[in-house]
Amino acid sequence: MDLFPDGTHVRLQSRELGTYLYADEDGVGVSLSQRRASLNAAWQVHRIVHEGVAYVLLHGAAYGRYLAVSPDAAPRRGHRGRRVVQSDRDYFDPRAVMWRVIRAWDGGDPDDVIVRHDLHRNLRANGRYRRWHTGVTVDDTFAAWSTMMRWTVQAIPPREAPPEIRLPVATPVSSKSPFVALIWAEQGSWNH
After folding, report:
1. Are the CB atoms for 152 and 13 separated by under 8 Å?
2. 8 A C-beta contact, residue 137 and residue 31
3. CATH number of the domain that 112 lies in?
4. Which domain holds residue 133?
5. How many structural domains comprise the chain?
6. Taking the model in full, what pTM does it have?
7. How far is CA 21 from CA 17, 121, 150, 181, 188, in A?
8. Residues 98-153: pLDDT tens digits?
9. Is 22 in a helix, a strand, or coil?
10. I need a labelling partner for 8 at 20 to 30 A (CA). Which of 26, 45, 64, 181 fits?
11. What's the whole-number mean pLDDT along residues 41-52?
């Protein structure tokens, strides 16, 4: 699919909520976040063909793990389906990291997709009515289609050079500082 060229980086934004698919800092969880300009919201595309079907693997830029369906149920009441996690490629069944991408069929934005795992089990955002429910799950049944399953793909263009890192300005230390006096006192005691 042209929205997911192999080796590129993308962000997936929930069409309904406006939040981004986000790799949690614990290196395992996946949630929704407002933080667009974060490495945690960037996913590298790996395309594979398995048994004649094209799949996409989403490799997290922040922790180097793949977006995967867990065998565990959704972690919170109010979340639907199975938990979505960051996983090593072979941690669960290797198929756990394989996703099919289908363009949204309702004539909306051409960059909107449904991210599908197995038959009709779709990646879904949670929190339509309870905004603090920021979990991401996969329906575990043949659930009816919902706008919570619709994602906008945003390509992240490559940079010509690494981003500029600005180090903090060094603060001069006065010789009258109590810290410097302590160091001199320590050094004096080492010399004896």
Report:
1. yes
2. no
3. 2.80.10.50
4. 9-158
5. 1
6. 0.77
7. 11, 17, 12, 51, 57
8. 999 988 766 667 778 989 887 668 998 887 555 556 788 888 666 567 788 899 99
9. strand
10. 26
11. 94
